[in-house]
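Backbone geometry:
***
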Amino acid sequence: MAYQSALSLVEKSDRELDAVWARDTALTEAERGDCAVIVAAANVQASRMALEVTSRIFEVMGARATASRYGYDRFWRNVRTHSLHNPAEFKLRTVGNWFLNGQAPVPGFYS
């Protein structure tokens, strides 16, 4: 179920980003804000889902799956590195500010 929600958010953010891109200079702050929020939500959900799946691989496959010769740990490391370089905390703040305060995210490094 978590995978389906992540996939739905990613697909929705993809459509939203295409629509926003097509607006070009006619894009409003509200439209940009809506897009930034759905992209942020998709990013958080996809990262959480990927961490869950890659962590559970070891539960399903057992202790031998951690052996370096298989290299399964690289999937978890890759997801973890991505999630640390693109922090969910900033994304969640963006989503919360939009829904609670009506504030569009300020364009920046993490938005």
Observations:
- DSSP finds four helices and no strands in the chain.
- The longest helix spans residues 29-61.
- The two ends are 27 Å apart (CA to CA).
